[in-house]
Amino acid sequence: MNFLAHAYLAGDVDADRLGGLIGDFVKGPLPAGLPADVAAGVRLHRQIDVFADTHPAFVRSRARVSPARRRVGGVMIDMFYDHFLARHWDAFHDEPLEVFAARMYRLMGDHADFLPPRLLAILPRMRDADWLSAYRSADVVAAALDRIAMRLTRENTLTGSGAELGVQYAGYEADFFEFLPAARRYAEDCRRRRGEIG
Predict the structure, then answer these.
(1) What is the pLDDT of residue 32?
(2) SS3 of 16-71
(3) Residue pLDDT, tens place only, 153-187
(4) pLDDT at 197
(5) What CA–CA distance (Å, rounded) separates 87 from 178?
(6) DSSP code, position 180
């Protein structure tokens, strides 16, 4: 999952949402200065990622990726699923996407002290171009994948990978609609179990 899906699946608690948004930028052990509730949100992000990697619909989507790009298929599907969530947002959330997105940018800005440096650096561009809402556009998703490709140091096939969304669009969309409700139930269960344990 990418930014939008992780913010959505994190639920209604700001600390979980913040952890969901920063999760891809925090690798390995959690930073010592991260508040406990935000750290719990990062752990939830990681649990969701593990769930996604093994869910049949997500696995099916990865198999749709061309063999030449299979190695970066997970990144592609993360972005494709954010596209479908943005396009079908009204089916999953009562709040308009632009309002939800603005709250996520504000949340990150209000907690800039906790943001990993790379996320802090891109936040102004993310907010100004409203990336979360802009994921509705397949062209925006393709451009985002190309930006990610520029950061990769090893030879990669991510550049131009956005074009693959259109090749099997209906199949990816069907996979998404199977996956997201299951991921939402899983995330809710993780939060519930954490509450019972904590």
Answers:
(1) 82
(2) HHHHHHHHHHCCCCCCCCCCHHHHHHHHHHHHHHHHHHHCHHHHHHHHHCCHHHHH
(3) 565 788 899 999 999 999 999 999 999 999 999 99
(4) 47
(5) 16
(6) H
The list of the chain residues with pLDDT below 50 reads 197-198
Encoded amino acid at 166, one letter:
G
Are the C-beta atoms of 85 and 133 separated by less than 8 Å? Answer: no
**Cα angle: 167, vertex 156, 58; to 5 degrees:** 50
Between CA 158 and CA 175 the distance in angstroms is 21
Q: Which two tokens stand for residue 182?
A: 């299951």
Domain boundaries, the chain: 3-197
Tokens standing for 73? 């298929």
Which residue matches tokens 């790009």? Answer: 69
Q: Is 77 left (phi over 0), alpha (psi -120 to 50) or beta?
A: alpha
Q: What is the pTM of this model?
A: 0.93
Q: Looking at residue 198, what is its pLDDT?
A: 43
